[in-house]
Design brief:
Distance between the termini: 30 Å
CATH superfamily of the largest domain: P-loop containing nucleotide triphosphate hydrolases
Shape: globular
Organism: Thalassobacillus devorans
Radius of gyration: 18 Å
Largest sheet: 6 strands, mixed
Strand content: 25-35%
CATH architecture of the largest domain: 3-Layer(aba) Sandwich
Number of strands: 10
Number of domains: 2
GO molecular function: ATP binding
Keywords: ATP-binding, Nucleotide-binding, Transport
Protein name: ABC transporter ATP-binding protein
Order of helices and strands: EEEHEEHEHHHEHEHEEHH
InterPro entries: AAA+_ATPase, ABC_transporter-like_ATP-bd, ABC_transporter-like_CS, ABC_Transporter_VariousFunc, P-loop_NTPase
Length: 240
């Protein structure tokens, strides 16, 4: 569970997130939506401890990300919106680096690396440097690294970007299975069709403020029953 209480973040006098209250429950796939510049990535970077919180608190499974950062970070896996990291490492070096950080035993690590990278179709490329990978392959190696230590909480920022249809399907099935086990899946996306197909609950943020939180049925009850998520989204963010 992720709990965000009265969180505010400002950049150079501009408020990026304002008095945000949000609870991301266990056992559900939770979608986080908003137009560009709405505060999505800023919120995610505060949840993960990349950015400091100006006001308020954020906890991950009860651990405060500011005062108990190590304990909190052990519990989640984070896929950033850009996979261009550790480009000089080989794929296998990157995954072993992640394995070392989370103290994954070598025998268990080897099996997990093989299973994950074969699922995403990059097993044969593990001895190549990440800088030689395509964007999609880089996304796959980052996702594999995130899932390697089997975290309870998944925080995914545009995780399907660059993935081929097969890998996208594989990741969506993994998300469903993870949530079905009572874990947390929190992800942002611009692909509204994916949200309709995949999410149990959604939150829409615009100009740093929460516009809606609930399930698809509750959202459409506030509008016309036959409206698509796209129309609802556009109406909620019409002042953008």
């Amino acid at each position: 569970m992720i709990t965000i209480k009265n969180v505010t973040k400002e950049y150079a006098g501009k408020t990026a997130v304002k008095n945000l209250d949000l609870v991301v429950p266990d056992g559900k796939i939770f979608g986080f939506l908003g137009p560009n510049g709405a505060g999505k990535s800023t919120t995610i970077k505060m949840i993960t401890g990349i950015l400091p919180i100006d006001e308020g608190t954020i906890t991950v499974n009860g651990y405060d990300i500011a005062s108990q950062s190590i304990e909190a970070k052990k519990l989640f896996g984070y896929v950033p919106d850009s996979p261009d990291i550790f480009l000089r490492l080989k794929g296998i070096e990157y995954l072993n680096f992640i394995g070392d950080i989370f103290d994954i035993p070598k025998d268990i690590r080897k099996e997990k690396i093989e299973n994950l990278t074969k699922s995403f179709g990059i097993y044969e490329a593990l001895d190549n440097h990440i800088q030689t990978y395509s964007h999609g392959m880089r996304q796959k190696i980052v996702v594999s690294g995130v899932l390697l230590h089997d975290p309870d909480v998944w925080i995914l920022d545009e995780p399907l970007s660059g993935l081929d249809p097969k890998s996208s399907y594989t990741l969506k099935e993994m998300m469903r299975e993870h949530a079905a086990k009572g874990n947390t899946v929190f992800f942002s996306t611009h692909v509204l069709e994916v949200v309709e197909q995949l999410c149990d609950e959604v939150a829409i943020i615009n100009k740093g403020k929460l516009q809606f939180r609930g399930n698809m049925k509750e959202m459409k009850e506030q509008f016309e029953a036959d409206e698509t998520l796209e129309k609802v989204f556009l109406e909620l963010t019409s002042n953008e």
